[in-house]
Amino acid sequence: MSPPRGPLAQLRRGHEQLVLGLLRKHGPLSRGELGKRCGLSRTTLYDILASLVASGTVVAAGQQDAPRGRGRPAETLTLNPDAGQAIGIDFARRGLHVAAVNVAHEVVGAVSEPHDAGLPWEQRVELAERLVGALTGTGSGALRLGALDAIGVGVVGPVTGPDASEAGDDAPAANGAAPHPVQLLLRERFGVPVLLDNNTRLAALGEAIWGAAAGEQDVLYLRLSHGVGGGLVIGGSLHRGTQGLSGEFGHITVEPGGARCECGGTGCLETVASIRAVLDAYRAAGGRAGDVPQLAEAARAGDASVLTLLEDVGTKIGAVLAAVCNTIGPGVIVIGGELTETGDALMRPIERALHEHVMPVSRHLLSLRRATLGEVAGALGGIALVLHESPLLSRYPAGPDLAKDPTMTPSRHP
Any transmembrane segments, and where (predicted)? Predict the structure, then answer.
């Protein structure tokens, strides 16, 4: 069941988020202090607080000392860190990344572990369960699985459908597609809704909320990893496109008649700018590098063959970015992924090609930035799907009404 979407329900939700935001920012506050900061009428504020206290989202933190002769101390209110938690999991091609936040939007843990690219889904989910377990503990900030509300998941490749489908049972999703295997496996283990989207688009969401593009309204995100893809934020909202197929920048042709791509095309950017493509090209030129850190070390050492290669790769990337920029007009471009570890050897040719090919009138309006969240960006984006509180998700299908989900089954965890 979806949350109510009427004007009054949206207004109330906005008031709730205003109050919760003040408690996140300032910590424990009295009702009087909240009233001064939020600008709501006393009646409205007290009604909102009563609802938040009744739901357990807000709890009493203690009492403030009142001035002598001023009566009883004022009660202060604070967010309840045990009221609800969210987990984000990024099932990347060759690794698993898990992050968790509490109701105060505080990251209570993050952990990653590499694995073989061909690892079956059952084993990936077992690994995910173990990593989630590694975040549990007895400290005040530890992840408590009993307070888990939902899991947001990123997977490699297109995620088709009108929304980020939620696996409630074995029935097909609303668009006629069966739930992804990872949704069913995670639901079986944790007993909570599982929201799914492309992991690179979730990384774009993470960078736009917590990372390099925080606060920006129009953002182009590109990740250079084992695959090449990205995401778009347009007018302050994450753009998914028809059937969720937005952001496939890796499949723009840069070399007509070039190498065959996994998508079925030829000469795609991914055949030139993915980790495997770059390493293969470097070794074909006589270089010796088994991974990206070794490639980056060769670049820092001034290896002419790697510098020439990265110049060519960066030029092609910059040309693609310029074409997209000329179409949608973003203010910020964020580049992420392991290949950015090569630093200026890659970033400078990207910037030069971007400057050369983008429309002159918009050159000074563009900001090119390195991603800041690292490998947990996709997991944090998955958490954003669960929370669904960022304005970036205003046009994105909402998650399930977790409190009223009729398909919920008891969690295996205490």
Answer: none
Residue 414: its pLDDT value, please? 31
Which tokens go with 203?
Answer: 């990384």
Domain count, the chain: 3
Structure tokens at 370: 């390195």
| Cα Rg of the chain (Å, integer) | 24
**Would residue 395 count as lying in a domain?**
no
The tens digit of pLDDT for each residue in 144-155 reads: 565 677 899 999
* Alpha carbons 413 and 31: distance in angstroms, whole number: 36
In this structure, what CATH number is given to the domain that contains residue 31?
A: 1.10.10.10
Q: Does some domain include residue 380?
A: no
11-23 core/surface letters (b: 16 or more CB in 10 A; e: else): ebeebbebbbeeb
Compute CA 273 distance to the chain's CA centroid, rounded to the nearest angstrom. Answer: 22
Here the tokens at position 268 are 């795609």
- C-alpha distance across the termini of the chain, in Å: 25
What's the whole-number average pLDDT of the chain? 84
- Segment 234-267, tens digit of pLDDT: 988 889 888 778 899 999 999 999 999 999 999 9
* C-alpha–C-alpha distance, residues 255 and 412, integer Å: 51
Q: What is the dihedral of CA 121, 126, 127, 130, to 10 degrees?
A: 160
